Structure of Chaperone protein HtpG:
Amino acid sequence: MQKGKIGVSTENIFPIIKKFLYSDHEIFLRELVSNAVDATQKLKTLVGTGECKQELGDLTIRVSVDKEKKTITVSDAGVGMTQDEVEKYINQIAFSGAEEFLDKFKDQSVQIIGHFGMGFYSSFMVSSSVEVVTKSWKDAPAVRWECDGSPEYTIEDTTRERRGTDIILHVADDSEEFLEESRISALLNKYCKFMPIEIAFGKKKEWKDSKYEDTDEDNIINQTNPIWTKKPAELKDEDYAEFYRTLYPMADEPMFHIHLNVDYPFNLTGILYFPKISNNIDLQKNKIQLYCNQVFVTDSVEGIVPEFLTLLHGVIDSPDIPLNVSRSYLQSDANVKKISNHITKKVADRLSTLFKNERETYEQKWADLKLFVEYGMLTDEKFYDSAAKFAMFKDVDGKHYTFEEYKDAIKEEQTDKDGKLVYIYSNDPEAQYSFIQAAKAHQYNVMVMDGQLDSHFVQMLEGKLENAQFVRVDSDVMDNLVRKDKKKEWKITPDEQENLKPVFEANTPEGGEAMYHVSFEALSETAAPVVITQNEFMRRMKDMSQMGGGGGMNFYGKMPDSYNVVVNANHPLVTEIKDDLNTELKDKITEYKAKLKAEEDVLADLNKQKGDKKDEDVPAELKTRIEEVEGKVEAIRKEESDMLGSWGKSHKIVHQLIDLALLSNNMLKGEALNSFLKRSLEMISR
């Protein structure tokens, strides 16, 4: 037996490895199995070139757990090692590499172990000691190497029937979770499911005598030739569908796929699937699995593909992506950028081809594609340029249009007096039904924009599309959505509007955080008597803030909702209310107006005396007098407003018109809705 000391300056490197890389300690199994695969493939190469004359025989890599002995063993029938090779690759190269790695990254929070570069000694993250029993394919005795987690090791001759290597981990007390078969099975399924050499973990089981029993057949846990390693010409649609079910057993069937197969200027293979995307971006991410030569690396690929592509599902396999560095480095790496750009182009080409060749199918799938396409257009300029040709608008009648087609369809009726093209949309066709019907009566087309990203999307499109303005169908009265040069006829004078304003204001909802502003519009007699709208800009800013629009948007998110209560000055019911008011309160209104006129005349005279003098030059007596008269003016106005409001509250028709407008916006609930129903019954039963 020979004893030795590993040449490292750190007194005990293994606890440092375990502590430093603790968050990733489960990958020890992937590293050891990967090494076994490498050793086996090297042997196949040697036999293929004739350098090794041995029969390959059974090359299955075997993983086993002995709970009683507290060991995990990974065995292969690959090239094996001679004693000199053990000395070189384990005692010198591996551990000097470990020390170099720790020194280099000691001040960084690195979550990956330098994938496939540090393999063997990752075993010490879960072990109190590690044995290596190996026999080279060359004519040399078998060797046993052991290390207990200190820099000291032993190495001696031993026996092993055939070439290959056994790595035996004596599991540490704090890692006994890895002695559970279910845990090892889960790790093998996660990391090794598609490795190119068969991997056996125990035996297949069958149900016998009310329990599962082992059979004589190896339990092979991996597919050695996954479909992304094959040429597209060799595969059928059923193969792609079956592979998707392997990756995502519980998912719905995907819409279609893209097969990636590039060998220049970089190596890239893979299958990407378009899933049926629900209306929630966060639930969809991290479904792409990244592999390096069929070895699973991660399903967090944000640094490797553009953000919007993380909504896709599937597999990417490339040896050209540097996997042992930080994400910020990945984002600036030239190879990664080329791969990312290539994938983006392939995705855009696939969508474009489907749109051109199978438009009917494309339109049927648009509801599921919309979120993905919009996300891409919002976050990737190059994708926007491509997607602008196949992105679609859908109107409330279910008809689909490209951007150019929609522009042609609406330009005649929806171009305003300033030459802007007005895109009218609904984010809830059912709730906004009455507004949509009013728009149709004006020969307007209303599109549906009810997606998670649509408030941001319309904001972007206003900047991208020429002379474009987007307005929600309930953001204003219909005559004002597309403003034309039309002379309006008013049946109510400005003075009468001033009198009616407090009448309607008194019946708007009280007590909530929302604000209501009453205004008058000269609409057609057949239009609704009262319409409640919400300003497009303010509402959109609030929507974007709730979606996470960035620091500047948070201001809008904290503001109360603001609604416009638009009274149709030409509707017969409104003119009837005006007549009732004149009949019942004409004398009182005249009296208030006279009082107000008198005080306003006094105030005008006082202000004339003040002239252009600076505030400090105005005599105190004059200042006091101005303030007194201003107070009187304000008090008269308030008294008059309170009187008109009190009259309005007692006028059931006014209250009914406001409630009907609220009801049409789905804003009448609880006690207010119950009062409306009672009032309606009373009015009907008269």
Observations:
- The longest helix spans residues 572-610.
- The radius of gyration is 38 Å.
- The chain has 21 helices and 22 strands.
